């Protein structure tokens, strides 16, 4: 009888250990791997749809089609994956969200890698989907609007200002406790649309290094590519400073508490 009790206790302990191990593995997957996969897939489809809209729109409807496609794609993807990864899909967003206390340091690099890989995969998908003629005419939807150094000051300022605006929308709508809103997907999508309509002729309205890197790598076009890193990252840092110093709630703000 005593031996049976001992065997039963050992069996129960073994079962508990297995369940605990399985729960730990599932938790690790949902905490680390799944969010990175969501960032990769979300960025991939955002870049894919955005690039196709540009490639198939050369000389057709101006900036209206790309603006609507980028904005609506952002809204849909943010809404679908917000509860998995936070739906960043943009390295400057990840940087700003981390600096405002919205994510852990250990997830920053994995998110950035996932977004950049997703951008490249999205650009590859757009090349596979579109005709060779259209792809070449649009240079693979890489940003080719900058042709001289005289355009640089305006383009850099445009990328910084427009990225600052959309980053503030993300931070105020998703991170800042005082102004957090369930309408973030709609707000981000609308901001992307108005930015593309306003700044398309000045810088091309990138706002996202992952969106710039993928087409540049696949199409082999690197002229003034650095602008689409410096401008968006600079704009996101300005938005971060505005929240940390002035607009954020007491948890985010570092002064005037």
From TrEMBL:
Record key words, sorted: Membrane, Transmembrane, Transmembrane helix, Transport
Transmembrane portions of the chain: 36-55, 67-86, 93-113, 155-174, 186-206, 226-247
Keyword Membrane assigned: yes
Gene3D superfamilies: Glycerol uptake facilitator protein
GO terms of molecular function: water channel activity
Membrane topology: Multi-pass membrane protein
Keyword Lyase: no
UniProt GO cellular component terms: plasma membrane
Cellular localization per UniProt: Membrane
Family: Belongs to the MIP/aquaporin (TC 1.A.8) family.
Family annotation (PANTHER family): AQUAPORIN 8B-RELATED (PTHR45665:SF11), AQUAPORIN-8 (PTHR45665)
Protein's name in the database: Aquaporin 8b
Species of origin: Pangasianodon hypophthalmus
């Amino acid at each position: 009888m005593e031996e049976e009790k001992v065997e039963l206790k050992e069996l129960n302990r073994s079962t508990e250990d297995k369940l605990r191990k399985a729960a730990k593995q599932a938790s690790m997957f949902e905490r680390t791997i799944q969010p990175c996969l969501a960032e990769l897939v979300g960025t991939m489809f955002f870049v894919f749809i955005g690039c196709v809209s540009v490639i198939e729109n050369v000389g057709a409807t101006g900036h209206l089609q790309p603006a609507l496609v980028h904005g609506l794609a952002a809204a849909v993807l943010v809404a679908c994956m917000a509860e998995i990864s936070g739906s960043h899909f943009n390295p400057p967003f990840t940087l700003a969200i981390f600096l405002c206390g919205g994510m852990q340091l250990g997830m920053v690099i994995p998110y950035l890698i996932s977004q950049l890989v997703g951008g490249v995969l999205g650009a590859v998908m757009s090349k596979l989907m579109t005709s060779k003629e259209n792809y070449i005419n649009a240079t693979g939807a890489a940003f080719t609007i900058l042709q001289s150094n005289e355009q640089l000051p305006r383009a850099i300022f445009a990328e910084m200002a427009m990225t600052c605006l959309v980053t503030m929308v993300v931070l105020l709508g998703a991170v800042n406790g005082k102004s957090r809103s369930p309408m973030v997907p709609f707000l981000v999508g609308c901001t992307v649309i108005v930015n593309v309509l306003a700044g398309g002729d000045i810088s091309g309205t990138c706002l996202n290094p992952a969106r710039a890197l993928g087409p540049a790598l696949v199409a082999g076009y690197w002229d003034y590519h650095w602008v689409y890193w410096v401008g968006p990252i600079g704009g996101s840092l300005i938005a971060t400073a505005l929240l940390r110093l002035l607009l954020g709630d007491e948890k985010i703000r570092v002064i005037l508490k």
